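Need tokens for this chain, all 178 residues.
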Amino acid sequence: MFGSILMAVGLLGPHAPGQIAAPAADFPMRTFFSVRSAQPDSTIPDVLREQFEKDDGSPLRSVSIDLNADGRDEKLVLCGVPSAVSGYQWLVFDPFTGVGRGVVIGTLFFVGREADSGYARLETYWRQGGKMSIVSLYTFARGRYVRSETRALSLWEASEYFRSKGPLDLDQELAEIK
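Here are the structure tokens for all 178 residues:
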């Protein structure tokens, strides 16, 4: 009995130094997807490979999603070579104008409900090896996606980060979240 009370007090008590509670859901998301959603795409012009930090010439894959609510899908083009920081490189490509709109890094993407200059905000997550993960926020400015915020997460912080997102059903990637 005393052990149960002691354990309950420990769980309800203050967090250990360096730990913070799960952040509030400060990124209202419309949908999400991961690397596994990327499909082979032979329609991507080879000249776009120049925009990747590194590229090995392997077949490109992409995920199609309307990021600016114009009724036409942009493509997030996945490069086969990780970036120098070990995350997957994705080029945001507008196939209707033929323009690359910035490279974003991540394994798991959250597409936001909020927008900048008409384009949805993107939040990405990836493991940087060992016990560290990275979360980056990308906003749209001057015709490109740019990283506006990055934070490193410990294992515990990564667990809290995903807890704040709510349940993610990987079979529902790219489905609209109500």
